[in-house]
Design a protein that fits this description.
The complex is a heterodimer.
Chain A (H helix, E strand, L loop, with lengths): L10 H10 L1 E8 L6 H11 L5 H11 L10 H4 L3 H6 L6 E6 L3 E7 L7 H9 L3 E7 L6 H12 L4 E7 L8 H15 L6 E6 L23 H7 L4 H5 L3 E3 L2 E6 L2 E7 L4 E2 L4 E5 L4 E8 L8 E2 L3 E6 L10 E4 L5 E12 L10 E6 L2 E15 L4 E3 L9 E14 L10 E5 L6 E10 L11 E6 L2 E6 L10 H8 L1 H14 L15
Parallel strand pairs in A: 1-3, 1-4, 4-5, 5-6
Antiparallel strand pairs in A: 2-3, 7-15, 8-9, 9-14, 10-13, 11-12, 11-15, 12-14, 16-20, 16-22, 17-18, 17-21, 18-19, 18-20, 21-22, 23-24
Helix pairs in contact in A: 11-12
Chain B lengths: L5 H19 L3 E4 L4 H14 L8 E4 L6 H13 L4 E4 L2 H5 L4 H4 L1 H20 L3 E3 L16 E4 L27 E4 L7 H11 L10 E8 L2 E4 L14 E6 L12 E2 L5 H10 L17 H8 L3
Parallel strand pairs in B: 1-2, 1-4, 2-3, 4-6
Antiparallel strand pairs in B: 5-6, 7-8, 7-9, 9-10
Helix pairs in contact in B: 1-2, 2-7, 7-8
Classes of the chains: A alpha+beta, B alpha/beta.
Chain lengths: 503, 300
Amino acid sequence: MATLVAPTETFSAFLEREKGKDLLRFTTAGSVDDGKSTLIGRLLYDSRSVYDDQLESVTKASVGRNAGAIDFSLLTDGLRAEREQGITIDVAYRYFATPRRKFIIADTPGHEQYTRNMVTGASTAELAIVLVDARKGVLVQSRRHSYIAGLLGIERVVIAVNKMDLVGYDEAVFTAIEKDFRAILARFPNVEPYFVPVSALAGDNIVTRSSNMPWFKGPSLLEHLETVPVGMRVSTAAFRFPVQRVVRPNQEFRGYAGTIVSGTVRPGDPVTILPSGRETTVASIVTFDGDLDQASAGQSVTLTLSQEIDLSRGDFIVSSEQLPLKSHGITSTLVWLNEKPAEVGKRYRIKHAGRQDWAILRQIDFRLNINTLEQEAVHTLEMNAIGQATLETARVLCFDRYTDNRVTGSFILIDPATNATVAAGMLTGTAETGTVAPLAGIAWHLRDGALVLTSEQGFSIKPGSTGERLAMEDPEALEALRHMLRRLGIAPFASATESDFEI
Amino acid sequence: MTARSHLQQLEAESIHIMREVVAECQRPVLLYSIGKDSSVLLRLAQKAFYPGPVPFPLLHIDTGYKFKEMIEFRDRYTAELGLNLIVHTNRAALNEGANPFNWGTQRCCGALKTTALLDGLRNGGFDAAIGGARRDEERSRAKERVFSFRDQRGQWDPRNQRPELWNIFNTRIHPGESLRVFPLSNWTEFDVWQYIHAEDIPIVPLYLAKPRLMLERGDSLLPIEQSIVPRQPGEEPKLVMCRMRSLGCSPCTGAIRSEADTVPRIIEELVTMRRSERQNRVIDHDQDGSMEIKKQEGYF
């Protein structure tokens, strides 16, 4: 199945090697009919990741469409509607492994209206394969695919020039496309490209080097995927640890569970707690498998600190030497994901590094035409649009720029009425928070130890809600709450209900 | 330093997901199916909340047709780990005579699994159910989110899923709606076995080969544990060296011929295996897009 055993190796050596194998997540982008599904089907098939009964089921299903040879695309189109219409609708995840590495593919559809899926697939990928049809050359879509890969922080892009069999395996065709494509990539200095001529259908340069193209001296697509370095940057970046949960099983133990986003931590390291700014040191790194001397990016651990500090979910523990940014006002690149367009002045839920908060969409600075890469002045963003926007959060947001850190630099926006995920955001910097109209007709006071907010509409904060607890325990949260209420005074206030005020 | 291994990365990701459920959902529950994936989930839950206890109960939907060895393992292992186990069965349907031969697999699954699951979740007031499903199991699962939204009737709408970016999960729901959460989304069958081996995780002995009494029918090996399995004329059970590759209800789960009586031997067998894991699950093949339809109705 998924894994090939080298013929000379013993089974126990095989098991040991398997355990040490690393992981590469990549995404694929291509225009309609570039042969993307065929390419993935080919990778799965040639790495023996497809079982006989799965092959039989797609051979059976192929009869209705193009009867005859195996239609690799049917292996990847998982939903019935997709198989019926012969198109890919949604992001699908595929898995295969070779003796060197395990792979996760985020397989995304190429139609323009599915930009949101491409962005979704790219968000977790370290490498992107962009397919180009050798007969068509570099299209406007190629620019879009490259832009999205660059935008989502993917530094390694493989440009697979496909259908080389249909141009007689002509080196000049490949070289011309490479030249055109390099001109596009000049805009993305961080992207390291690799160009490879392939035929997904015939299997040229996919797994093994093709004898049809002796002029090409580079490794095959799979050889490149197996050897390209991964995971280097996050482990050398500044230490970032968003607290996911406070762990307090008994009086003696107080720890902070989370996943190390970037950098490395050791007991004794000086750290700063944000947003409070208090400084302390790491006491221990606790795991089920024993305490660790060191932990780094990607590990899920529990930290204890040498001082008792009040800390809750969503706070950051970070390297004291390199602090993140801190602001109520933020600028970001937004990808709009929902049919309901962006509404300036509306408040959304923002989820950033394990913390939910309110954010008001202040302004849309511009929309990017992702085909021409020109900025366009707009008042809204519609589904699949990419633009730059300014937001303001109720509580102070600690973050890094997305180009520095993909985890502390990213967020999603949620529509509070429908709970739909409406936008993906990549933080670009801080913004001045503007003045807002004071909130009319609202008062807050403490009654029987509880915070009560009253208004002309007569709503009050939900007793026992997180918002109340925060406000009672934490003066900063109270300040944040007041800040939020000031912001709320703008539009949504008239229709506010109790549940709106649960932080 | 060198990159961390794929198993370590998958483990860390699953732990992150479990912690996120507990941090953001009101009343999570772990859907415990007793199989190998559930065994892995339990180990991950122990790791995620250490040194605290596992902070949610387990819910087992018992169809009444599970293998005896599964139930024994369930009771022993969950007691050993000190976990809170809830068992729910659709007694009404069983009393009406629900079984795959009288009712057909689709109706039987609908009553004993889907309805029972939805009832079990409603009875407990659970708003998030953690399950061990993996995207590599079946092609409609390949498209499902890690945090997968269910409407008030527990149904899945594959065409209208929330986009899921980075590791930021949208856990917000309205009252009556719920989430299914799949921490093993990115694991493959092979990863699961490697992890069981590396971590020495207990599994139901049915996964390991030994001689068992089976009905041989064509290429299939049918367990005879349930007296409801209709015999064909002249058919007699035989002792066959075999094991279960996946565990479900005994009348609907075939065995495979195998000599693999240890976990490393199972891994060795998988390397050369040419059939997929769910191939012996009758219920996946009752119609095209079978799993997708069952999932839309609320099935796991």
